[in-house]
Amino acid sequence: MSFLTTNEPNFDEEEYGKYSVADWKLYSFNYEILKDWEESKNIFFEMRQLWEDSQEFRDMSGELYTACAQVAISNDIKKVLSKYQLAVDFEITVFDPDDHEKVNYCKSVNK
After folding, report:
1. In a domain, 103, yes or no
2. Which of 41, 86, 105, 110 would be 94's cystine partner, CB 3.0–4.6 Å?
3. pLDDT for 72-84, tens place per residue?
4. For 24-31, which contacts have Cβ atoms below 8 Å and span 24 or more sequence positions?
5. Domain region containing 64
């Protein structure tokens, strides 16, 4: 999970592009929270191994991103976000980090 905020003095959208997520200050911030949680490490490595070893799992990536997008745009998430002052161009995005087209799965799910 990553966030781009207005407090990013070193992020230049013109230079990097809006979806250059790895350049964001809060890129994969949840890793820092979860890195010492042993169970999450075990699940991560098991899931990664399944993905690497199976074309079937790689083919299912779109379904996983679609499911994540459905949660990300849910009313519960919108309710939490409504507590914050969001930028005019704020958007929730879920995309495949390995897809250079950066298709936003949130725009393709039923709302």
Report:
1. yes
2. 105
3. 999 999 999 999 8
4. 26/2, 27/2, 28/1, 28/2, 29/1, 29/2, 29/3, 30/1
5. 60-107
